[in-house]
Design goal:
The chain has 16 helices and twelve strands. The protein is an alpha/beta fold. Strand 11 and strand 12 form a beta hairpin. The longest helix has 23 residues. The chain is globular, with a radius of gyration of 24 Å. The chain binds manganese (II) ion. Manganese (II) ion binds next to loops.
């Protein structure tokens, strides 16, 4: 606060050597100066600047989180991530765990799906990030009575299969910290959802900066967590290209603690052959209309699910394409379940992925949307229910894929090209 008010003062001070108003008429090089002066005055009159407002919000949220932790001292919590957690979720959950530790709160970071992206596996392995995979089966075998609450980090419970079961077990939701658009109204003791922030890692770095945890470069775990947060922040901002002031400020702070070599090692993780195969399929199957690239990639194994966002990342780089949607049927052999999984990537600033996906696919019978998103990226999951399985018969499997493929294309193309009906009567 102090810093900002003095900054405003400096900016509104007249510049030394400022020409007198009479000089403007004669000196053409200085025509811009009255504007500079004007904006200085405007700053002083407009009340708190954007960064001042942000600072006071961050301070208020940190204080609230501190009080929430105090109220839950010595408890045990679950930190639930989306089924397929990304670096932003993983690193933020770790920061949450380290902050909570100071209040003698013990956290278990869990996710139901898989770490399928090579980079995510590298992140977890190389930093020793303490996330555990709990399938629905694992969860059923656990004694949940030792947990007094759960936290949702980088999600709002709509992308995790574990949440309904944990709620059924009577565990209350204590904390929600996320940057996706508001998904539903959830009640929690602490709630910080800021869709204007590009990464949850930015929100957590801000908490660290306000003193919720003092990072120390001589503590190995702190260095690794700072590295993980840097990775999360980078990967949710398309390597900082979509980062805004707050994200850069957070990255600047992390730069004091993170290990650049470790981050480099994480980023070097190569694409597996199976991911390359899916990218190849997406290239072969794509249709491009009105600068949208749409590709169905057929059936995928559960562990290869993250090939879909990687294929979308790739398709959106094509010339004349601003938005790519890639989807496939992901088959979970353990559970005999199938689900359509899709990813959207866009470089078009005026396209809101959250709105686009909700508009394209709508809601299920319980009013839950099939997907959503944040700035520049989104995803959807459509359970296939009764139509799951039975793929031993390849003619049936092929027919099933064709039906779902056509249906998804119809729904997408209705928005991409409203006049066109992709299914022509024969
Ligand atoms: Mn995120």
């Amino acid at each position: 606060m102090h810093f900002n008010s003095s900054l405003t003062q400096i900016e509104s001070l007249p510049l030394t050597g400022d020409p007198t108003p009479d000089d403007f008429e004669t000196d053409k090089d200085l025509v811009e100066l009255p504007l500079t002066k004007h904006s200085g005055t405007a700053l002083a009159n407009d009340g708190p600047s954007l960064s001042q407002r942000n600072n006071s919000l961050v301070n208020q949220k940190s204080e609230e989180l501190h009080n929430t932790f105090l109220a839950h001292k010595q408890e045990r919590q679950l930190v639930i991530l989306q089924d397929f957690p990304d670096p932003d979720a993983l690193s933020s959950a770790w920061a949450y765990q380290l902050i909570a530790q100071q209040y003698d709160i013990k956290c278990d970071i869990i996710y139901a799906g898989a770490l399928s992206h090579q980079e995510n596996i590298a992140l977890v392995k190389l930093t020793g990030l303490p996330a555990q995979r709990w399938t629905l089966q694992t969860l059923k075998g656990k004694d949940l009575s030792s947990y007094q609450g759960f936290a949702l980090i980088d999600n709002q419970g709509t992308t995790s299969q574990l949440v309904p079961l944990v709620q059924e077990a009577g565990i209350p939701i204590v904390v929600v910290i996320d940057h996706h658009s508001l998904q539903s109204d959830i009640k929690s003791d602490f709630f910080d959802v800021r869709p204007s922030v590009r990464a949850t890692a930015t929100i957590f770095t801000q908490y660290l900066q306000t003193g919720l945890l003092t990072l120390d470069s001589s503590i190995n775990q702190h260095v690794k967590c700072a590295t993980a947060l840097m990775h999360g922040l980078r990967s949710d901002t398309n390597r900082l290209m979509q980062a805004q002031e707050e994200d850069f400020m957070a990255a600047a702070y992390l730069s004091r603690f993170y290990d650049a070599q470790l981050l480099n090692a994480i980023l070097q993780a190569n694409r597996s052959k199976r991911v390359m195969d899916v990218i190849e399929r997406s290239l072969k199957n794509r249709i491009v209309q009105n600068n949208f690239s749409i590709a169905g990639v057929g059936y995928l194994r559960y562990d290869d699910r993250d090939a879909i966002p990687q294929a979308a990342d790739f398709l959106v780089t094509e010339e004349n394409v601003h938005t790519a949607v890639v989807y496939g049927i992901v088959h979970d052999e353990d559970e005999e379940l199938e689900v359509i999984i899709g990813s959207l990537r866009t470089s078009k600033l005026t396209l809101d992925p959250d709105e686009f996906i909700k508009e394209a696919f709508g809601q299920d019978s319980s009013g839950r949307f099939f997907g959503g998103g944040r700035i520049s990226a989104g995803g959807f999951e459509i359970p296939m229910g009764f139509l799951s399985g039975g793929n031993e018969n390849s003619a049936y499997a092929k027919m099933k894929w064709e039906v779902f493929d056509s249906q998804i294309k119809q729904k997408l193309l209705r928005l991409v090209n409203p006049k066109d009906n992709p299914i022509q009567p024969e």
